[in-house]
Amino acid sequence: MVVVDRFSKMVHFVACNKTLDASHVADLYFKEVVRLHGIPKTITSDRDVKFLSHFWRTLWAKLGTKLLFSSTAHPQTDGQMETVNRSLGNLLRCFVGKNLKQWDLILPQIEFAFNRSTNRATGHSPFQVVYGSNPLSPVDLIPQLPLQNYSSDGNQRCKEVQRLHKEVQELIHKHNLKCQKTANKSRRAAHFEIGDQVWIRLRKERFPPGAFSKLKPKADGPFRIIKKIGDNAYQIDLPGDYNISATFNVADLSPYYEPEVPPTPAD
């Protein structure tokens, strides 16, 4: 389980089995995340059955946490998590080596290294954003001559942390604008209303393994829009035999136009 803080970019890597149900995942979340950072205001996750379960929704509703979900087969909705997952995969390949079955023993070291590294969006490491400074690493324990004296005044330290947080917010805002500008170059504007008829694009990622055939159509429809979910996602009135999520990103929707009937020639 990978947990990322949206502001500081601090991560927590928690080893678990795919077979764990929602109650066990919640236990891990409280033990590894809540005990350090408290109850979150929002949680963004994919549409795994654990996170869509009645237990998970009820638990966080009681705690006042708002649950947000990414669109099915559209990981760009939570690009931050996708970036961290790629970095985690690269780090595991570097550290694990031939000990493939001992990957979970390396997670604490990888988490420490990740949180101590400078993030491109914030310009600082997650440790610096959360605690105001980087923790000591084994290299830092080597005796060195002091290069400068640091003030121990608490008020000054508080101002430094506040200045750092303001700087991080500005850098995150600039980075998000840059990413948004890049993404919008290839993004088409699409707005639908409830009741509109649309074509849906069928991706093989939406179907369980083995259920999608190369001979299946690339698109289907028309289907009626029954709910608007934000500006980029809509819920479609799908037939029950599809057995997939009915929430689609606008990138997978196309407007349906009634075919023009040619005029009948006069007798």
Automatic annotation (TrEMBL):
Biological process, per Gene Ontology: DNA integration
Any one GO MF annotation of this record: nucleic acid binding
Return the Gene3D superfamilies for the record: Ribonuclease H-like superfamily/Ribonuclease H
InterPro entries noted in UniProt: Integrase_cat-core (IPR001584), RNaseH-like_sf (IPR012337), RNaseH_sf (IPR036397), SH3_Tf2-1 (IPR056924)
Family annotation (Pfam families): SH3_Tf2-1
* Limits of the Integrase catalytic domain: 1-134
PROSITE patterns given in the database record: INTEGRASE
What is the protein's name according to its record? Answer: Integrase catalytic domain-containing protein
